[in-house]
Amino acid sequence: MPQSINVTRVGIGVIIVNQNKEILIGKRTGSHAPYYSIPGGHVELGETFEASAIREIKEETNLDITDPQVIAVTNNLETYRKEGLHYISIVLLVNDFSGTPKIMEPDKCDDLHWVDPHNLTKPHSDASQRSITCYLERKFYKKI
């Protein structure tokens, strides 16, 4: 396991659902590579979860999202075991967006595509997998 950083971080994961009930995922090239995951990032100091989701999605995909709703929280201990980074992720759901997904940060993501949430592209990140499981099972939190 890589060296741990002695801080728990707060992440944001956003499940964006299109009209075909597919969700948007990307392939990570920077941190957490080579895993696929829903888009997201970090909560900045003083930022609401909703504002963080809107900012991160615009920065990563150029989509404009409306009315993101908090639906779950995940404790991503597999990421901690593999990378030494402990994240608690706030998961938001978005059904209303405008634009076409576009890779805006090629140093962090090199592929964006829509997938059936029941048939995820592999390998898939711990945080994203847990988030999608909560979404599909309509659970706010799922024990590890």
Fold and architecture overview:
22% of the residues lie in helices and 35% in strands. With 144 residues, the chain is of the alpha+beta class. The protein has one domain: Nucleoside Triphosphate Pyrophosphohydrolase (Alpha-Beta Complex), CATH 3.90.79.10. The strands form three sheets. Strands 4-1-7-6 form a four-stranded mixed beta sheet, with helices on both faces. The chain has a three-stranded antiparallel beta sheet with strand order 3-2-9. The protein has a two-stranded antiparallel sheet with strand order 5-8. A hairpin with a 7-residue loop joins strand 2 and strand 3. The protein is globular, with a radius of gyration of 14 Å. It starts with 7 loop residues before the first strand and ends in a 7-residue tail after the last helix.
Q: Assign the CATH superfamily.
A: Nucleoside Triphosphate Pyrophosphohydrolase
Biggest sheet details? 4 strands, mixed
CATH topology: the name is: Nucleoside Triphosphate Pyrophosphohydrolase
Bulk shape = globular
Q: Based on helices, strands and strand pairing, what is the structural class?
A: alpha+beta
Which range best describes the helical content: under 10%, 10-25%, 25-40%, 40-55%, 55-70% or over 70%?
A: 10-25%
What's the number of domains? Answer: 1
What is the count of β-strands?
9
Indicate the low-confidence ranges by residue numbers. none
Identify the CATH class.
Alpha Beta
Task: Please write out the topology.
Layout: E1 8-16, E2 23-28, E3 36-37, E4 40-42, H1 49-61, E5 64-66, E6 69-76, H2 77-83, E7 86-94, E8 96-98, E9 109-115, H3 126-137
Parallel strand pairs: 1-7
Antiparallel strand pairs: 1-4, 2-3, 2-9, 5-8, 6-7
